[in-house]
Amino acid sequence: MYIISAFQHSLYLEVAITNLEKKGIPKENILAVPLKKRRELKKLFDTINQSDGVSQLDTAAILGTIASIFGIIYGYSLKWGPLLWGLIGLFSGFILGFIIDIIPKRKKRLQKACPNSSDTEVVVIIQCESEQAQFIEKVLWENLALGVGRFDG
Amino acid sequence: MRTIKQRESIRQLRRPLGFLSGLNTTLFHLRNPWVVTWWSAAFPGFGHIMLGNYLKGFLLIGWEFFTNHRSNLNKSIFYSFTGEFEMAKNSLDLTWATLYIIIYVFAIWDTHRSTVDLNKYFRISYNENSLISPVKITSLELNFLDKRSPWLALAWSLLIPGLGHFYCMRILTSIFLSLWWVVCLFYSGAVIGMFFTIMGDFSRAIDVISIQWLLFMPSIYGFAVYDSYNVTVEYNKLFEREQALFLKNNYQNSNFNIFNIK
After folding, report:
1. Does residue A149 belong to the interface with chain B, where contact is any CB pair within 8 Å?
2. CB-CB: which of B206, B217, B233 is closest to A81?
3. Of A101, A110, A112, whose CA–CA distance to A38 is shortest?
4. Predicted confidence (pLDDT) per residue in B133-178, tens digit
5. Pick from B82, B147, B226: which is nearest to A61 by CB?
6. Residue A32: strand, helix, or coil
7. Domain that includes residue A117, residue range
8. Contact status, residue A121 vs residue B240, Cβ threshold 8 Å
9. pTM of the predicted model as reported, rounded to 2 decimal places
10. Model confidence pLDDT, tens digit, residues B85-132
11. How far is CA B107 from CA B49, B59, B114, B239, in A?
12. How many CA within 13 A on the CB side of residue A26?
């Protein structure tokens, strides 16, 4: 019998595998295949699990810093003073930079809109006896498997 | 048996993808040289810190604070942009400003050059499938690769520059940023100035703040936010890559009897 499961890269995945080995599943009966990822154009924001290698903050941080410096300098002669204008500069520069970074990305996103691919990053297949299936599934679910399935053959 | 084999392979590595120490995870990844160059221009030394050249970075930042303060450069920048050119000329100390500019240009040039070289290094190391050891335990600190949220790093950096770097185990960056941030807060009078600003007493706010010190702050703030976010994203990628290589080396037995039940 085979148990097939999908995971994201995380420490949980290694907890699951080591737990199974402790409970007597031999290493040779565990197959783990990390998947190459689709270039993620559909994601606008980096999250804990994915990023497409392009920082969205490049322009934002640069413009934010510059605008903040000028906010402070000219804030001296404006009513609200340098501190408030410095902060206004920081946030408006940041937002402007963010928008500049996002617009071309958005276009690309629309062009290459891809089917709603799942978040699976690793496929783990375990070969076992049918009476072991239940606890294996339990271990996998407990360690945040995205999905678990059986194949009886 | 397995573990011994892997340790050997680590020892054999010529070009590791990164290095974990108790205080810091230093890693190579592709960077836009112009972005690194920009941070060097915003504040000499920040570019080096981004790359992991800590000693160079700390020396350059210290030098920047010292000479900028001595030459009144920030004050002079302020007067220049507000059109008071006579004041700008009078406030600038020529000796220190001359020394300042040479190191300033050097820092910018040096980070650009380094980034280009490190990008080449990264490509080689990536193609070699170099492994790294994902855990470092010392008597002072624990460091291990894990997934962390870039937005959380950013949020902490917004509160106090340096906290985001604490979260993502860049402790050297963290100490340095928070230290200088507090020094700037103290000498710029920004906190008291902010108090008067919020109370609507804008002229008193201007009286208590020092432009020389206040102008350091946007760069420190912007850099802390940007770098902590960026580093966290790259750490997550390093984690994934290390785990993927580990799985490939250990859980892809060629005798695995796939879907062929006796």
Report:
1. no
2. B206
3. A112
4. 889 999 989 999 999 999 999 999 999 999 999 999 999 999 999 9
5. B226
6. strand
7. 2-151
8. yes
9. 0.83
10. 888 888 888 888 888 888 999 999 999 999 999 998 888 888 877 778
11. 11, 11, 11, 31
12. 7
